[in-house]
Amino acid sequence: MNSSTTITAQFSTPNRTRMIATAFLQLLWRDLWVTLRTWQTFLAMTLVQPIFFLFIFGRLLPMLGQANAGYGVLFLPGIISLTTVLTAMQAVSMPLVIEFGYTKEIEDRLLSPMPVWMVGIQKMVFASIRGLIAGAMIVPLGRLILGSGFSISFEYWWLLIIVAVLASLVGAGLGLTLGTFVQPSQIGLMFSVILTPMLFTGCIYFPWAMLDKLRWFQVVTCINPITYASEGFRASLVPNIPHARLVHHRRTIRFPVIVHLSGCQGISSQGARLQSLIHLAKGRRCLA
C-alpha cells in the first residue's frame, strides 16, 4: 500500500462523514455555550419586548375597558409566534452580518471540514434552538402577566410542537437570507423596512379569520410567514378562537410554511456560499 492509497483510505466517505458531523456538533456547541455564558443578554433581548406587549395589550387595555376581557388569550399566541420567529431571525442575521463585515469570522468557520452550505445549516439549527427557547419562555410569562385572563389548552400538543419547530426554522431561514445579502451599514435600515411590516401583517393582534371584511389585507397577511405561525399557535393553544382553516388539518398547515422555509433556505444557501467564497478568495489573495 503506497502513500496515496493510505491518504485515500483516511479520507474515505465514512471518515469524512464522521469528521463533518463532529465539526457540525462542535460549532453548534460553541454557539450554545456562548449563549449560556451571556444568558443575561439573551434574556434581555428576548423578554423585554414581550413583557411590555403582554402588559399593555393583554392586561392594561382590558383593565381600562379598551379591549375585551379575553383579548389577552387571543393576543398571547401572536406574541409567542413573534418572539419565536424574530429571536431565530436575529440570532443568525446579526452575527452573520458582523462575520461578513470587519471581524471576518466567517473565514474561520469556512476552515472547518464542512461544505459551505453545511455552515449555513449549522447557523439555522442554532438560531432555531434559540427561537424555541424564547417562545417557550413566553408561556409562563403570559401566566404571570395575564393572571386570571390566562387560559390556554395543551390538548393539541402535537400541533404545538410542529408549529413551534417550523416557525423557528422559518425565522432562522429568513435571518440567514438577510444576513448574507445585507451590508453591515444597512442593518438598521433592514430592521426598519422589514421588521415593521412583519409586525403589523403577521396576525399577531387579530385572528386571520376575522379579516374577511377586509379581503385585500387578508391576502397581504398571507405573504408574511408570521401569519402561519400565529394561526398555528392559536389553533393549538386556544382552538375555540376563530383561526385560519388551513391549520385545522395536519396536511395543510405545513405547506405554506415549508414554501417560505424552502424559498428562504435556497436563496440564503446560495447567497451564503457566494459571499463565503468571495471572502475566502480575498483571504487567500492577502496571504499570497
Order of helices and strands: HHHHHHHHHHH
The helicity comes to over 70%
Proportion of beta-strand residues: under 5%
Structural class: mainly alpha
Report on the biggest sheet: none
Roughly how many Å is the radius of gyration?
A: 21 Å
Structurally, the number of domains stands at 1
For the termini, the CA-CA separation is 35 Å
Uncertain stretches of 5 or more adjacent residues? 3-11, 246-254, 280-288
Number of DSSP-assigned strands: 0
Q: Rough shape? A: elongated
Mean pLDDT: 79
Report the total helices: 11
Provide the fold topology.
Elements (H helix, E strand, L loop, with lengths): L2 H8 L2 H25 L1 H25 L7 H30 L4 H6 L5 H31 L10 H25 L5 H14 L14 H7 L3 H13 L12 H38 L1
Commentary on this structure:
- By secondary structure, the chain is mainly alpha-helical.
- It has one domain.
- 77% of the residues lie in helices and 0% in strands.
- It contains 11 helices and no strands.
- It has helices at 3-10, 13-37, 39-63, 71-100, 105-110, 116-146, 157-181, 187-200, 215-221, 225-237, 250-287.
- Helix 4 packs antiparallel against helix 6 (116-146).
- The longest helix has 38 residues, at 250-287.
- It is elongated.
- Mean pLDDT is 79; it is low at 3-11, 246-254 and 280-288.
